[in-house]
Each structure stands twice: as C-alpha cells, then as structure tokens.
Specification:
Elements (H helix, E strand, L loop, with lengths): L25 E2 L12 E9 L5 E8 L6 E7 L13 E3 L11 E7 L5 E8 L4 E9 L14 E3 L22 H8 L6 E3 L5 E9 L4 E9 L14 E3 L1 E2 L6 E2 L1 E7 L5 E9 L2 E9 L14 E4 L7 E8 L5 E9 L4 E9 L15 E2 L6 E9 L5 E8 L8 E8 L14 E4 L4 E8 L5 E7 L6 E7 L3
Antiparallel strand pairs: 1-30, 2-3, 3-4, 4-5, 6-7, 7-8, 8-9, 8-11, 10-11, 11-12, 12-13, 14-15, 16-17, 17-18, 18-19, 20-21, 21-22, 22-23, 24-25, 25-26, 26-27, 28-29, 29-30
C-alpha cells in the first residue's frame, strides 16, 4: 500500500502533516551541549495555557543516554525561550548513584506545575517508578519529593525479588530504552480529589517486565496511603488461582472515577489480553464483566497483546489489541468497544472487534487515542509483504465512533508516512489534530532519529 506523506498545498486533507507546525509538520529537538546531535524523544503532551495558547511538553534523552530533559514548545513547534534555559530543563542526576531519570509521561496540575513521571535505576536490580516536578517557568520545584525528585519502591512479592543484587546500572542503549518504553506507559491522570494517578512498571536490569502497579500520590509527591496498599495497586488477574501478573500497557479514568487498565498475561505458550476496572480505592469493580476483568478473545485462538485503552464520556471502554496468527509471527490490530458493564457494544462494528487490514502489508499498532470528534486514532507502523520484521513505514488510521474507517482521513481511513519508519502509537494524542512521535533512520549514522509530528484534522 502506498500513500503519499502529504498532498499538494491546494489538496491537503485530514491525515496530512500539518504545514503550520515546525518544518512541514515535524520538529526535531537538538541536544544543548552537543549540537547538531538530536535528542531521543520519549513522550509528548500538548496542553493549553491560561492565556489560551497551546504548549507542548516533550520528554527527551541524550544520545549517550546520560542526560534527560523536559522541553517546552509553543503550538507552532518553536521552542519556548521563556521556559527553563531557552526552552530546556535538564533533569538532575539522582544521587548517590548518579543515574538518569527517564521521563515517559506528564501530569499537569492546576497550579501550573508539571510532573514528569518515568523510571530510574534503583540500585537493587530494578528500575523503579520515579517523578520530577517542574514549575511553570521551568525551575525544579524543591517542595516536591526530595528536592524536586521522588522515587517509589513498590511492594514486590517475595518470589519476584532477585536472588542477587545488581548494584551497577546496566550499560544504557537505545534498543533497551525502546524496549523499556513499552513497559512504562505514558498515561497519567489528575483525580478530582487533587490526587495524582499513574501507571508504572518495575523492570529488571535486562529491561524485562517484573510487575505493573497503579500509583496514587499527592501534589507534593507523597504516596496516598488510602489508595490500595500504601498507595500501590498491583495489577493482576486475581480471578484465577494462583493470581497472574498483568503486563499493563495503558489505563484511563472513566466518568465515575473508575480506573480501567489494559494488559497481557501469559497462558502456556500463548498470551491473553485482559481489561480490568478498579474503583477509585483500587478495588476490582465487579460491575465490570462480573469479576472486574474482561478477557479479549482472539477469534484465531492465538495470542492477544493489549496495546492501549481509553474510556468515553458515557462510560464505554475502547481497547486496542493485536490479534496474532500462526506462531505469533503475524498480527492485525483490533479495536474493541465495551459497554460500561463489560460486554461488547452492539452499536460498534455490529458487536465485533474492528480490525484494520492493510494487505498485503500488516499494521503493527502500538497505541490508541480518541479525538474531539469521538473518532478513534490508531498509530504504529506498516510492514510490507507480511514479514514480521523488516522495513516499515509510519502509519496512522482513524475510525468513526461506530468502528468504520473514516474515509475522509488519509487514503480510505489510513495515512502512511513513507519518510518515517514508525509512529509511536502510545504517544498519539487526541484533539482535532493528532500529535505524537515519529521515528526514521538518520541518513548518515543510520541511528533512529525522533520527531514530534502533527497531522491535519
């Protein structure tokens, strides 16, 4: 399937790169001490300011994986020189280990403060959830946590703790950073009670998933002891014995304050997709599927990997799954809409999962968003000729609220951005214009470079 990156100026349509943003719809971010080296981009989040102007916050990591930054851009993609040091805030290294806090998502407070959350090497064989707080002008808020930084140590079950401690952080690499990003969801929410909720993962020194938790903290960075156990909820399928840990990928807050989480568990040689809903206290909501957990069934009988989840204003749950076939080599994205009680919505694609078929290519989807028109945006990459690996193109599809591909977007509902090899789907944001992260190999170094992008709505 071949779709142009953009249409001629007088023929631009929804799905084309937005020419009013950056350079032709994309922005790359240079590393301050090492120009012209580009920063890796780990998260992006647009947010309106009090003045009505949109700001865009971007979390970045240095090429040598030795520094991390929070960058603020204006709505047109230019750096906001009034924020931090000419648009950049460098996150201090965490002592005493001198490790880098890698930011993977943002929380925006009514005070104007911004909390970046992610992970840091904990020095005991694990990467642990961490957060940093920045003031509106780009200064470190030293009243948050310990001088602006906070590390959270979830209560791991005894059988998950390492037999030997790995004190030294493994040598960072971009491949490991990318692998780890899939285990640290960028989603976060501010609750109505002013508490802050985010989903985090504990991973080991080989960047393998250990356990997922929902964390609830106060604006000062302290754990909310009234949530779960000491501020933590272990994400697991407790409807079976023994309970199985979920590799949680995404979560959202529903209209009643419930916490909806999408994740995957291993069942023998296959993997099973689950959607769980907790109440505001962190207790499974039995009004959802009868147990608090709904299983997403792959019609082929092979593995299901959950890629994302969102909730609508009427309490429905929109989940993104990858349905695998034939020894988990090939996959197709499937969008599933559930009623508030957990059963399939009969008004969405006749009550069936809506799959996106790019034959002869396959669509490796990685994230989902809902725009202001309640349309569903799915981002990822297309791989030609049904090859499980190989050359790929960035890919974004848009579905109508009833599950039908939006024919006014791209070509028959899908835009292929051939200049780029992947769209970080977990970073595609809602709004009229989709925004997120694109990746492409550098022409000289062949190392992947990251770009913030915005599409016409």
């Amino acid at each position: 399937m071949s779709t142009p990156t953009s249409s001629p100026a007088n023929q631009r349509k929804a799905g084309d790169l937005d020419p009013s943003f950056g350079s032709g719809g994309t922005v790359d971010i240079m590393e301050p001490p090492r120009p012209p080296s580009r920063l890796y981009i780990d998260a992006v989040a647009p947010v309106p300011s009090d003045s009505g102007e949109q700001y865009i916050y971007v979390a970045c990591t240095g090429r040598h994986m030795d520094q991390s930054y929070i960058v603020r851009m204006r709505g047109n993609g230019t750096l906001d020189a009034g924020f931090g040091n000419a648009g950049y805030v460098q996150i201090p290294l965490l002592e005493p280990l001198g490790t880098v806090a890698a930011i993977s998502g943002f929380l925006f407070l009514e005070s104007g403060n911004v909390i970046g959350h992610g992970r840091v090497w904990g020095g005991q064989g694990f990467y642990l959830p961490a957060a940093v707080c920045i003031t509106p002008d780009g200064s470190l808020d030293t009243s948050f946590g310990d001088q602006g930084l906070a590390i959270y140590n979830p209560p791991l079950p005894e059988d998950l703790k390492p037999e030997t401690e790995l004190k030294q952080e493994p040598l960072p690499s971009r491949n490991r950073q990318q692998k780890h990003s899939s285990w640290t969801p960028a989603t976060a929410s501010t609750r109505a009670d002013d508490k802050l909720l985010f989903l985090a993962a504990v991973v080991d020194g080989f960047y393998d998933h250990v356990a997922s938790f929902a964390l609830k903290i106060t604006p000062s960075g302290a754990l909310d002891n009234r949530f779960g156990k000491g501020g933590f909820v272990l994400i697991e399928d407790s409807t079976v014995s023994p309970a199985r840990l979920l590799d949680a990928r995404d979560y959202d807050i529903d209209f009643q304050g419930g916490i909806v989480v999408a994740g995957t568990v291993r069942t023998g040689n296959e993997q099973e997709g689950l959607v769980a809903r907790y109440d505001a206290r962190g207790v499974l909501d039995r009004g959802f599927g009868g147990t608090g957990i709904v299983r997403i069934v792959n019609p082929s009988g092979f593995s299901t990997h959950m890629r994302g989840v969102k909730t609508s204003e009427d309490g429905k749950v929109i989940a993104l799954a990858a349905f695998f076939t034939a020894q988990s080599l090939y996959q197709h994205p499937a969008v599933i809409k559930l009623m508030p009680a957990g059963y399939l919505d009969p008004s969405f694609n006749n009550g069936e999962p809506a799959t996106i078929d790019l034959s002869p290519a396959i669509f490796v989807a990685s994230g989902i968003a809902i725009d202001d028109g309640r349309r569903i945006i799915v981002g990822g990459r297309s791989v030609e000729d049904h090859a499980p690996v190989g050359p790929s193109n960035a890919c974004v599809s848009r579905l109508m609220p009833n599950g039908i591909l939006d024919g006014s977007f791209g070509e028959k509902g899908t835009m292929i951005l051939e200049e780029f090899h992947e769209c970080r789907g977990e970073e595609v944001h809602s709004g009229v214009k989709a925004m997120g992260i694109l990746m492409k190999p550098d022409d000289v170094s062949r190392v992947a470079s990251d770009y913030v992008f915005r599409l016409l709505g």
